[in-house]
Specification:
Length: about 230
């Protein structure tokens, strides 16, 4: 079982909403801020949920061991890409400002406050991983993940290396099964911004197989922090 007896008893006694985080969702905290998909509402929701989680009582964040491994492997690249993109944006803004001033704009462009944006987001990322409770799968979870790959069942796809993704999903399904079987009625939300893996092809809805898996355990799916905050009732 993914949750030990002591952790299970503690979570039941707490009765708080549960947020299960995917790798991409936490990497989004640090990811390139110049992307059009980055929205202020989601950033505010990210910070709001983090403050709730850090109280130790208002929100429980579960993080699968596989997610921690993937974060360690991918964070340096994502962090560097965010830094490079921000430098490119600042260079473009300075060029535009210089041209505008040449045509008589006469304004002064201020961007010093952006210089430390990436370190600030990294600090928030570190707070998320520090307050999250690790979930370690047992061999039965790994076996079910292998069956999911062979299915293939979402998030597995034919011709795609999906074992790691399936381990993450099965880890959270196992933890949710324990919690629901023990009587937890609080919201459980799985957050993953990788909608391509979880939505039906050409749709904005969950694929039917993963929807059935989540539905059986009353797990809600959130593609971003804003949706997660709403579904958690926070």
């Amino acid at each position: 079982m993914s949750l030990g007896s002591a952790d299970l008893a503690r979570l039941l006694a707490l009765g708080a909403p549960i947020l299960c985080v995917d790798t991409c969702t936490l990497l989004d905290v640090v990811r390139d801020v110049t992307r059009a998909s980055v929205q202020l509402g989601n950033a505010n929701a990210c910070l709001s949920l983090l403050r709730k989680a850090e109280t130790g009582t208002a929100l429980v964040v579960l993080i699968a061991d596989q997610v921690r491994l993937e974060l360690a492997n991918n964070l340096p690249v994502v962090e560097q890409e965010a830094f490079d993109a921000l430098l490119k944006f600042q260079s473009q803004a300075q060029r535009i400002d210089a041209i505008a001033n040449a045509f008589g704009a006469g304004g002064a462009l201020q961007m010093q406050h952006l210089h430390h944006h990436v370190p600030r987001t990294r600090a928030v990322f570190d707070r998320w991983t520090a307050c999250a409770q690790s979930v370690t799968p047992d061999q039965t979870v790994t076996a079910r993940a292998f069956q999911r790959v062979n299915g293939p069942r979402t998030p597995a796809r034919p011709g795609k290396e999906s074992m790691k993704d399936c381990v993450i999903v099965e880890t959270y399904l196992d933890a949710a099964t324990q919690l629901r079987s023990a009587g937890l009625s609080s919201p459980i939300v799985f957050a993953s911004s990788n909608t391509k893996d979880f939505h039906a092809s050409g749709s904005s809805h969950l694929a039917s197989d993963i929807s059935a898996d989540f539905g059986a355990l009353q797990i809600e799916y959130a593609p971003n922090f804003g949706a997660a905050k709403h579904l958690l009732g926070l």
